[in-house]
Design goal:
The protein is α/β, with parallel strands linked by helices. The chain folds into two domains: 190 residues, inorganic pyrophosphatase (n-terminal core); 109 residues, Diaminopimelate Epimerase, Chain A, domain 1. The protein is built from 13 helices and eleven strands. The protein has a six-stranded mixed sheet with strand order 6-7-8-9-11-10, with helices on both faces. A five-stranded parallel sheet has the order 2-1-3-4-5. A hairpin with a 2-residue loop joins strand 6 and strand 7. Helix 1 packs across helix 8 and helix 2 runs parallel beside helix 3. The chain is globular, with a radius of gyration of 19 Å.
């Protein structure tokens, strides 16, 4: 069977794609990496490419309000042409989205209690490697870090979203025979990324600004180092400034939200994004995105704060 695997650009995306392909013994495949808010455009670009594959899988990519209809239309066309379409995700789906996806023949498995790798690994019973991989990846993706291998793997895949590197990392997940072998291959990259984190974190925190609305304290920052995790920086922001919400503009020009108190998925949803209650993302509003590059750093931070504060004001702090 020849498969097209479309997945997210983080550790859970890379690992869930590999876990799905390995569990089904698929050796002939193509992997494509994308972001949730670009899924619909990615599917449209791949419409002709899909003709070559018998199976199309989507892993670790949740739909957004602005993309769900276009995404389902592209996948329903593939399904009508005899392609098997499987969508595995652990983000929050509206009931109407689930009904629409299943009505067009998509084999949908959504489970918010685990990570996408955890769902994909269920297809393989008794595989000790996939069981260990699932534990480590879910530990990192859910920001628990209660598995000793989680810090190594999250830094191995990294945060640059560089497609060439993601393909190389994906191949490692496909080729290794054990967790021990995987960790040995991950070690050099992991140490390199950790060193960058130590150098960059204090520099980043110096430029964070704080604003409050309706009693909600929000910390804002702009991440310019692609090798450093937004989640790591957000936890530092929340702790250092006793903030309720951390909002970060990353180097790719997208917004990321983290909180241990407030449901940031609802705030991201207001801005055309989505994700998890404690970790979500959204595109930068178009009107702001066009002028950001010409502004000095402090003005960029203030400017991106405005729509986020308005969204936070509308939603409030819904407890998680």
């Amino acid at each position: 069977m020849k498969a097209l695997s479309i997945t997210h650009t983080d550790l859970d995306g890379v690992a869930s794609s590999a876990a799905f392909l390995r569990s089904r013994n698929i050796v002939e495949y193509e992997v494509v990496f994308t972001e949730p808010d670009s899924l619909h455009s990615t599917l449209n670009k791949l419409s002709k490419e899909m003709e070559k594959y018998e199976l199309i899988s989507i892993t670790d990519l949740g739909p957004n309000p602005g993309s769900i209809e276009v995404s389902l239309e592209a996948l329903s066309i593939a399904e009508r042409k005899g392609k098997q379409v499987i969508w595995i995700d652990h983000h929050i789906w509206d009931k109407s989205w689930i009904e629409e996806a299943t009505s067009v023949g998509i084999e949908l498995e959504v489970d918010t209690s685990t990570c996408a790798t955890g769902i994909a690994s269920r297809y393989s019973q008794g595989d000790s490697f996939l069981e260990g991989l699932s534990r480590a990846v879910c530990s990192a993706d859910e920001w628990r870090f209660d598995d000793e291998n989680a810090p190594w793997l999250v830094r191995f895949v990294g945060f640059t979203r560089d497609i060439d590197w993601l393909r190389r990392a994906h191949k490692v997940f496909m080729d290794v025979g054990s967790m021990k072998e995987l960790l040995e291959k991950a070690r050099p990259r992991t140490i390199e990324v950790h060193d960058i984190e130590l150098r960059y974190s204090s520099e980043f925190l110096k430029e964070v600004i704080i604003e409050s609305r309706r009693g909600i304290k929000v910390a804002f920052g702009i991440k310019r180092e692609p090798e450093v995790s937004a989640s790591l920086l957000a936890q530092l922001m929340l702790a250092r400034f006793d903030a309720d919400i951390a909002a970060i503009l990353n180097e790719k020009g997208k917004l990321e939200f983290r909180s241990n108190k407030c449901n940031v998925r609802e705030i991201a949803f207001q801005l055309g994004g989505g994700g998890h209650p404690k970790a979500s993302g959204a595109p930068v509003p178009v009107g702001i995105k066009t002028i950001l590059p010409i502004l000095p750093h402090n003005l960029r931070t203030i400017l991106i704060a405005r729509p986020i504060l308005k969204a936070a004001e509308r939603v409030g702090c819904i407890p998680v």
